[in-house]
Every structure is written in structure tokens, then in C-alpha cells.
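quick one before i forget lol
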Amino acid sequence: MSSHIKSILGALTFSYLFYTKSFGLNTILLSIVVLVFLFAGHKRRPIPWLYSIPYLFTAIMVFMDPTDFKICLHFMAFFVLIGKYIAPSVSLYLSWFIGVVNMIIASLVKLNDRIHQPKSTRKGLSKKKKDYIKGSIIAFLLLIIFALLYQKANPIFEGLIQQIDLTFISVPWLLFTLLGYILFLHILNPYNPKELLDLDQQRANELKHPEQPFTIPILEKLKSEQTLGSIVLSSLNLLLILFLVTDIMYLWQIDPISNSGYSKSVHQGVYALMFSIVCAILIILFLFRGQLNFYMGNGRLKKLTYLWIGLNIVLVSFTWFKNFQYIDALGFTYKRIGVFVYLLLTLSGLITVYIKVACLRGFIYLVRTNIAVVFGLLLLSASIPWDRTITWYNLKHIEHPDIPYLLHLGDTNSEQLYHYIQTPHWENTFHKDTIEKIEKRYAQFRSNQKVRTWQEYTAFQIQNPREK
């Protein structure tokens, strides 16, 4: 079966599942179709089993809880899968880029290559088949033109033409199906950016040891860089120690529940942490960018670097503790969860910088490793229904939950809020208009779930079969 026929079948499936539909069961079904199409061509390319799992996993998570975040993550996993299908050995950060580029310009690149290909090497339809296709298209267009002209000259013929009902043809549906055809054609006939792949293969994680011994001028230069770096990192370490001491005193004195400045302290602390660590990492990368890694006298500079990394891990721990107290007092929000996520990524960055210095790794190692950590953390977060989790925690553990904030979350927490106001708590807690908003939101949520077609079914329809 040719790739064009497969692409047409894929496009019809894509259109049937998604045209005028929202995300739900159709996401899982289309993901299975895409994987079948990819694995059907495994004789030409190896099967990226490892990256098929995240793609299918994110599709299931969209079915369970179709939020914008999980839908975006599903597309990200799709682009990574396509990138790995095209070039299995390429780095993860390039896989995503290759997948995006392939979905956009693969047809244009292949068309350009075909145009500039020598005629003697081109493969395609025979001249007779091309003539049939051209003749059919021209005849179809001429039939339409002359039929429109003839109907003006003959009332009977005009009546016959007007009886032809073409209202079943939907231009938006045709365009949507054409989009599906292009997507599947790009999947089945991907574009392989060889130059980019070769460039990535040439970049090793390990630094290459100099083949020749250092000359005296180079040794003098490295000694100067080592002295300069030691002064800079010593100053940064002293400043960070002073900050940590004052931070301990601040944490010892305040009451996070009553102190209005606690929230400001947490967020400003994160911003300061982000800026200071990024700046210091850039300094370390600059100092250990090349020959200084192999300079025998760099021991003091390395010790100062390890000390700075350790102090920043302590700073991360303090900020983690402050954010935990903040949540314990006021509840979960996406911003407070984001602080935890950033701290985890910061910790990953600190650990990889240590490995880079201690094990003589290059900058490309930091990029590859931390991109993989980010992707893994996003996949892990996709397994959590955040809107419902935030709502559950705040309603159960916070004495006075921020209901207006919970109302601004996705409508998947409508049932939780509705059941909460059925308890005695709400009588002395909420205003009448808040109760009305919750009831109206809940009714709208139930109504929206009832009108979903089978393609749009989510976990809600499975758990509540009577709502179908």
C-alpha cells in the first residue's frame, strides 16, 4: 500500500475522530493509529519503543483529565516520538525540534529535492497515468464551467442542474481532512536533516583531553584564570553563607500564618535564587570551559565550586521549607506548585554542574541531561489531576479556603465544590452569590458532559455511565 493511500486513510480517521470534537477518547484512538502506522514501516526504521510509551501515556492522561497542560504535553511527546523515529540516536532536545520541523516543512523540502533531482533518476507515475490524471482534472473543470453556461440557455437543463445537491460538501471538513493527510504523509515520509544529526553526533558529553602538554604561556594564563575564579567564588560563597544565616534567623522569628510579608519573602527568595544560581552557573561554565579542566593546579577552584554548589543546595532546602509552610497555612495554588517544580529543576542543575566539573563533562552534557530531566518531570506531572488535587487539599486542610481561586480553575472540580457546599460548612462561610456561582458552574459542567459524543468521552463518562 502506497504512502498516499495510507495518508488518505489516516486523514479520514483523523477527521472522523476530531472534526468539531474536543479531546477525549479520540486522543487514545488516534495515538494507536499513529503508532500502528509508524510500526508498519519498521523495516526501514527502528521502532522507538521507549518514546512510544510516553506518547501513549500522555494520551491516556488527556482521556483521564483533558486539561490544556496535558494536551500540550501530549503534542510534545508526539514531536519527540517523531524525532526519535527519524533519528533514534539524536539527543532528546533535538528530537523535539526535528519532530516540529518535520510536521511543518517535510513536504516542501521533499518537493524541492524532487524538483532539483535529475530527470533520469526520478521515480513516479508513468506518462500514460499522468495523462489520464491531467485529462480527468481538466475535463472536470470544463464540465463545471460549461454546465453553468448551458443552464442559462435552457430552462429544463437549468432545472436538472439545480436538482444536484452539493450541500453535503463541507469546505471546513475538507480543509481539516487535508490537514490530516499532510500530517500522516509527513509521518510516513519524514524529512531527515542529516547535517543537524551529524553536528549532534560530533558533540560528545566528555571533554577531550589535550594531546600536547601545556606550554608556559598557557600555564600562566590558566594560573591567572584559576586565581580570578577563586576570588570570585570565594566572594560568592561568603555572601551566600551570610544570606543563609540571616534566612535562618528570619525563619526562626516569623509566624507564616500571620505574617503578611511571608508570601513576598517566598517568591522573592525564589527569584533571587533563580538569578544567583544562573549567574554563578554561567561563571562556572566560563571558568571550566576548556583547558582549565585539565590544569593540575585547579584543586582550590574545584573545592570552592563544590562548596558553592553545596551551599546552594542548602538554599534550595530552605526555600522548599518556606514554600511548604506557606502551603500548609494558605493552601495549594499553581504558583506555589510551580515553586516546587523550579526547585527540583534547580537541584537537577546543581547536581549536573557538579558532575560536569568533577567528571570533566562538556556544556552539551548539561543541555542533554537537564532537557531529559525536564521532559521526565513533565511526564510525571501529567499523571496528577492538578485542578482536583488542589481543590481536594484546600477544601480538606485549609480552614478558610480561597473559593474564588478554586472557581477559576478548570471545571473538573465542579463536583467537589458542589458537594462541599452541601455540608454545614458553607452556611457561615460563603456569600449567597458564591453559592449561586458554584451551583451554576456545576449544572453547566453536567450539561457539557451529557452532550459529548463517544469520540469525546473522558474518564467522567466511564465513571458515570448514566451521564452519557
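fyi The chain has three domains: 1-127+167-205, 216-361, 387-467.
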